[in-house]
């Protein structure tokens, strides 16, 4: 690859880049993610679907009470905050805004934080238990042809 090649845009969970966007107001900066982006000549497009939905930071922790990301999109799942508030519509709104951002930036790929109710790639939380599944934003973007990896795939 030549040094002049334009970097490919890729959606990246903002918390993995060191931004304090997580529900608890913290980040999950991951040096392997940053190295991967440099090595592969990728231009990160930082994204936090929950913030795009208008949810505050910090905010109560959210998890699936039933189903997963696709189920919430289809109206068959339940996503709640630890205080019991149904936040499914907010997460769908954040996913839709994330899709707009991906399309505006020309992203074909995403590198997301696994375990997140928005960004989970391979796993999510169903109550307190980790299970196989995708977050709401991942599920929507998969339906629109984006390819995904998680930070765990870089180990």
Word description of this protein:
With 155 residues, the protein is α/β, with parallel strands linked by helices. The chain has one domain (8-154). Helices cover 28% and strands 24% of the residues. The chain has five helices and eight strands, in the order βαβαβαβαβββαβ. It has helices at 31-39, 49-52, 69-73, 88-105, 136-143, and strands at 8-13, 42-47, 62-66, 78-81, 109-112, 123-126, 129-132, 147-150. Strands 2-1-5-8 form a four-stranded parallel sheet, with helices on both faces. α4 (88-105) crosses α5. The longest helix has 18 residues, at 88-105. It is globular and about 50 Å long. The two termini are 24 Å apart. The model has no long low-confidence stretch (mean pLDDT 96).
How are the secondary structure elements laid out?
Elements: E1 8-13, H1 31-39, E2 42-47, H2 49-52, E3 62-66, H3 69-73, E4 78-81, H4 88-105, E5 109-112, E6 123-126, E7 129-132, H5 136-143, E8 147-150
Parallel strand pairs: 1-2, 1-5, 5-8
Antiparallel strand pairs: 3-4, 6-7
Helix pairs in contact: 4-5
